[in-house]
Specification:
Growth Hormone, Chain: A, mainly alpha, 407 residues, 82% helix
Length: 407
C-alpha cells in the first residue's frame, strides 16, 4: 500500500501541470507567426515559401525525431526527455530575439521544432508512469488539451499584441518560455517508485528491437494507421478550411473563427471523452463514433452557407474527432504496456506527421487538378472510411494490466 501511495501520490498533478505548460509553449511557438503572415513577410521581406517554412519545419522534425525520442522516453524517463526538450526550446527561443533577421528566426524555429517531439510525445509515458489505470485516460486528455490550448492562444494573442512590435513580442515569448523551462527542470521529476525500473531498462534497452516488437502487434499498427488519418484530417482541415469555405461565401475572418471553435470543441472533448470512456469501461466504441462523426459532419460543414450552422458543425466535429487523440494514446498504453509506451507514442507520431504532410499536399493537388478546392474533402472522407473499417478490427483494450510492478 505504501508503495502504491508513492507511485500515485498527489505530486503527479504538479508534474502533469508543469508538463502541460511546456506542451502549451511548444504549440504556441509553432503557430505564433501563423495569424500575422502579411506582417512577418513585410518586416522580414520574405516570400510566401519562406514564411511557410517557419511552420512546416515542425512536421519535418516531428517525422524525423519521433522514433528516437520514443526510445529515449522508454530508457531515460519523462524528466530527462522533457527536460532535454525544455533546454533546447529555451535556447532556441532566445535566438529569435534577433527579430529583424529571417535566418535567426528560422534557426530558432528549427530549434523549437527539434524540442517539440521531446516534449509533446511524452504525454502518454507520463500518464502511464504517474497515474493509476482509472486516471490514465484523463491524464492523456489533459496532455492533449494542452496542445490545443497552445494553438488557440497563438492564433488569438499574437494578432492582438503585434502593434507593440515584433522584437518586444519575441522578448515576452522568450521570457515566458525560459521561465516555463526552469520551472519544469526544477520541480518536475520521475515517479520515485519507478526509478529503479527506468535504470534497469536503460542498461538493457534495444530501441530497434522495441520497434520490431511493436510492428508485430496488429492492434498497435492499426492504432498508428488511424493516427495517420486523424492527424492528417486535423492538419488538412485547419490548413485549408478558408479555401474550403470560401466558395460558400465565408470570409477569411469567419473561417478563422470556425477553425478556432473546431479546436475549442476538441479541447472540451479531450477531457469529456476520456472520462466517459473510463465510466463505461470501453475504448473501441468511442473510436468508432469518432470516425463515423467525421464523415457525418465534415461534408455538411463545407456545403453550408449559414455561419451559425458552420460554427455548430465545427464544434461538434472538433468534440467528436479531435478527442480521439487521448483515447488512442490510452489504447496504445493498454496494448503495448508501460515499458514500451514511449516507443509506441513515437511510432504513432511518425504515422501522424506522415499523414499531415500527405494530406495537406494531397488536398492541394486534388483542388488544383479539379479547379475546385472543395474536392479535396473527398480525400478526407475516403480516409475516414478506412479509419472506420480499421477501428472495427481493433479489440477492446480497456482492462489491460500493463503496469510495471513497483519496486
Amino acid at each position: 500500500m505504501e508503495q502504491e501511495q508513492v507511485k500515485y501520490g498527489s505530486y503527479r498533478w504538479i508534474v502533469l501541470a508543469l508538463f502541460m505548460f511546456q506542451v502549451v509553449l511548444t504549440q504556441f511557438l509553432w503557430l505564433n507567426f501563423a495569424p500575422i503572415q502579411p506582417t512577418i513577410e513585410n518586416i522580414l521581406h520574405i516570400s510566401d515559401f519562406k514564411f511557410v517554412l517557419l511552420l512546416s519545419v515542425f512536421n519535418i522534425f516531428n517525422l524525423a525525431l519521433s522514433l528516437p525520442v520514443g526510445a529515449v522516453l522508454d530508457s531515460r524517463g519523462v524528466k530527462f526527455t522533457v527536460g532535454l526538450g525544455s533546454i533546447i526550446m529555451a535556447i532556441a527561443v532566445l535566438l529569435r530575439l534577433k527579430s529583424d533577421s529571417y535566418s535567426w528566426i528560422l534557426t530558432g524555429q528549427i530549434g523549437i521544432a527539434i524540442a517539440q517531439p521531446f516534449i509533446v510525445n511524452s504525454g502518454a509515458k507520463l500518464a502511464s508512469t504517474w497515474f493509476n489505470k482509472n486516471e490514465e485516460a484523463l491524464a492523456n486528455g489533459f496532455a492533449s488539451m494542452a496542445m490545443f490550448i497552445g494553438m488557440i492562444a497563438a492564433l488569438v494573442i499574437t494578432p492582438i499584441i503585434i502593434h507593440i512590435g515584433l522584437f518586444p513580442i519575441m522578448v515576452i515569448y522568450g521570457g515566458v518560455t525560459v521561465l516555463g523551462s526552469l520551472l519544469f527542470l526544477l520541480f518536475a521529476r520521475d515517479n520515485p517508485s519507478l526509478l529503479l525500473t527506468l535504470k534497469t531498462e536503460e542498461q538493457g534497452y534495444h530501441p530497434v528491437q522495441a520497434y520490431k516488437e511493436l510492428l508485430k502487434m496488429k492492434d498497435m499498427v492499426t492504432i498508428a494507421g488511424i493516427m495517420f488519418i486523424g492527424v492528417g484530417f486535423f492538419n488538412g482541415i485547419t490548413n485549408w478550411l478558408d479555401k474550403l469555405l470560401g466558395p460558400q461565401g465565408f470570409s477569411e475572418e469567419q473561417s478563422g473563427v470556425i477553425v478556432g471553435l473546431l479546436i475549442a470543441g476538441g479541447i472540451v472533448g479531450a477531457i469529456v471523452m476520456p472520462i466517459l470512456s473510463d465510466l463505461v469501461k470501453r475504448r473501441k466504441p468511442f473510436l468508432i463514433m469518432g470516425t463515423v462523426s467525421a464523415g457525418v459532419f465534415m461534408y455538411p460543414l463545407i456545403q453550408t452557407r449559414s455561419y451559425t450552422t458552420a460554427i455548430v458543425l465545427a464544434v461538434i466535429l472538433g468534440f467528436m474527432v479531435i478527442s480521439l487523440l487521448p483515447i488512442m494514446f490510452q489504447m496504445a498504453i493498454e496494448v503495448v504496456g508501460e515499458k514500451l509506451t514511449g516507443s509506441a507514442t513515437g511510432m504513432m507520431w511518425v504515422f501522424g506527421a506522415t499523414g499531415a504532410i500527405i494530406t495537406i499536399y494531397g488536398m492541394e493537388i486534388i483542388g488544383n487538378a479539379t479547379s475546385d478546392f472543395r474536392n479535396g474533402i473527398w480525400l478526407l472522407m475516403g480516409m475516414f472510411v478506412i479509419a472506420f473499417l480499421l477501428s472495427l478490427t481493433l479489440r477492446e483494450t480497456y482492462g489491460g494490466t500493463n503496469k510495471v510492478p513497483s519496486k
